[in-house]
């Protein structure tokens, strides 16, 4: 443990930068990042508040607020006259660090609690509370569709609001599209590694997933053409920072896929939750072939799962609309009015964009942490929220997943995503669900240590 003389403010490579968020939040972010990369360790003393305020040229109240927030996040412990120290990791009984669920991380340099309070107050100020608590016809109000068109415009360019349908999450949208575009027994073309919700919806609706061979660019057009010639008329793609592989399909392959679909009169479902987290993704397939493509974009992966709001951009021909809405209403009568109203408010007042930028920044920082601790993960997109990690030969995905759980770490094995007999030897590691970067860094370091070991084999004697 450091004493007071060992914790001068000069050792902190921290500068308050205008335009980088609230000053107190910059101090908290620095503490969290320094813990994550090992510059600050449990037991290290942080500078006295007055000394840090003087060194940074800020008010004492700014540092006081920063230390209070750091204490709330369990980053520091205040010990009265002894000073304030970096806290030891929380040791909760049966606590599991969950890296199995793909959710966006807490946004950097954003006071989410304050944003939520202000957003809800504006919704209640501008809306009739009774209307927020009653039944609504599915598909979204005109104002909600306009907000959806504005959000989708970031990927697609100008969007006609009449083509936008507001849905209670991407899974409901996906199931309704499958139900309206196929019949029982039909096949759905997909890459062998695909979002598990596709298989779940297909199974429930008595459809089957038809895995299409891939190469380095993604789904092979010749293999897709063979499937379409055999009767497949619906194609599922997750072409940008794909779940689980993080692969992004290049523009040339996107065009080849659309040519195959057009030739065989097949529809495309483009499930694109991560496009806004990418820095260099090609335009969506829906912008190349708007007459063929149903485009799905959820706020759950870019803003917050609690919003339970997804936007579907229907094809230009209008044929899909009524059947899709009827299918959606058959099992999800409506989206949550309050959540949709909050989404609409945030999109129109700019809060959604602020939140998105904070999540992008945090995702970049978390990917850096993953790169620090995990070897062999190769080239990764800079702002994704998950990692596809190929395992060393001495571990199988099943063994590693069980061993990680015994170490209070939860990851996802490849068989959850695979449509076929022999899944690749890999796991998906989600980076957003862990509340703070320091805890994530400790978890990834523990996982890296586990990967270096060999599994324990126990021989049972009968």
TrEMBL record:
Report domain HTH gntR-type positions. 21-89
Please verify whether the record's keywords include Ligase: no
A Pfam family of this chain: GntR
What are the alphabetically sorted keywords of the record? DNA-binding, Pyridoxal phosphate, Transcription, Transcription regulation
What InterPro entries does this protein's entry cite? Aminotransferase_I/II_large, HTH_trans_reg/aminotransferase, PyrdxlP-dep_Trfase, PyrdxlP-dep_Trfase_major, PyrdxlP-dep_Trfase_small, Tscrpt_reg_HTH_GntR, WH-like_DNA-bd_sf, WH_DNA-bd_sf
Keyword DNA damage attached: no
Q: Which family does it belong to?
A: In the C-terminal section; belongs to the class-I pyridoxal-phosphate-dependent aminotransferase family.
What's the protein name? Vitamin B6 salvage pathway transcriptional repressor PtsJ
Q: Which species is this record about?
A: Ralstonia flaminis
Source taxonomy lineage? Bacteria, Pseudomonadati, Pseudomonadota, Betaproteobacteria, Burkholderiales
Encoding gene per record: ptsJ
């Amino acid at each position: 443990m450091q004493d007071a003389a060992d914790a001068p403010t000069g050792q902190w490579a921290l500068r308050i930068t205008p335009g980088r968020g609230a000053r107190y939040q910059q101090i908290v972010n620095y503490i969290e990042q320094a813990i994550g990369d090992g510059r600050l360790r449990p037991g290290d003393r942080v500078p006295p508040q007055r000394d840090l305020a003087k060194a940074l040229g800020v008010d004492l109240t700014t540092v006081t607020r920063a230390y209070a927030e750091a204490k709330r996040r369990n980053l520091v412990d205040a010990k009265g006259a002894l000073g304030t120290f970096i806290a030891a990791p929380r040791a909760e009984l049966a606590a599991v660090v969950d890296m199995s669920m793909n959710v966006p991380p807490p946004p950097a340099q954003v006071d989410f609690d304050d944003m939520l309070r202000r957003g809800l107050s504006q919704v209640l100020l501008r809306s009739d509370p009774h209307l927020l608590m009653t039944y609504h016809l599915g598909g979204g109000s005109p104002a909600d569709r306009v907000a959806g068109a504005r959000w989708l415009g970031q990927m697609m360019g100008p969007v006609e609001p009449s083509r936008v349908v507001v849905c209670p999450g991407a899974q409901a949208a996906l199931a309704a599209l499958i139900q309206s575009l196929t019949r029982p027994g039909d096949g759905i073309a997909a890459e062998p590694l695909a979002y598990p919700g596709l298989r779940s919806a297909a199974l429930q609706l008595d459809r089957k997933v038809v895995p299409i061979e891939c190469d380095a660019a993604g789904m092979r057009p010749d293999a897709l053409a063979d499937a379409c010639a055999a009767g497949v008329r619906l194609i599922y793609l997750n072409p940008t920072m794909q779940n689980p592989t993080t692969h992004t399909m290049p523009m040339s392959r996107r065009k080849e896929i659309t040519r195959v679909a057009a030739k065989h009169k097949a529809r495309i479902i483009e499930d694109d939750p991560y496009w806004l987290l990418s820095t260099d993704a090609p335009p969506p397939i829906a912008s190349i072939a708007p007459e063929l493509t149903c485009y799905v974009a959820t706020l759950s992966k870019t803003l917050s799962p609690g919003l339970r709001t997804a936007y579907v951009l229907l094809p230009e021909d209008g044929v899909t609309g009524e059947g899709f809405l009827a299918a959606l209403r058959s099992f999800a009568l409506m989206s949550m009015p309050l959540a949709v109203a909050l989404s609409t408010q945030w999109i129109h007042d700019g809060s959604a964009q602020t939140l998105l930028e904070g999540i992008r920044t945090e995702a970049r920082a978390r990917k850096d942490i993953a790169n620090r601790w995990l070897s062999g993960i190769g080239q990764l997109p800079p702002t994704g929220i998950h990692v596809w990690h190929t395992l060393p030969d001495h571990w199988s995905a099943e063994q590693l997943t069980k061993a990680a759980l015994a170490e209070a770490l939860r990851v996802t094995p490849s068989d959850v995503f695979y449509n076929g007999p022999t899944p690749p030897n890999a796991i998906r590691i989600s980076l957003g669900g862990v509340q703070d970067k320091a805890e994530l860094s400790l978890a990834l370091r523990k996982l890296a240590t586990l990967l270096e070991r060999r599994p324990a084999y126990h021989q049972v004697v009968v």
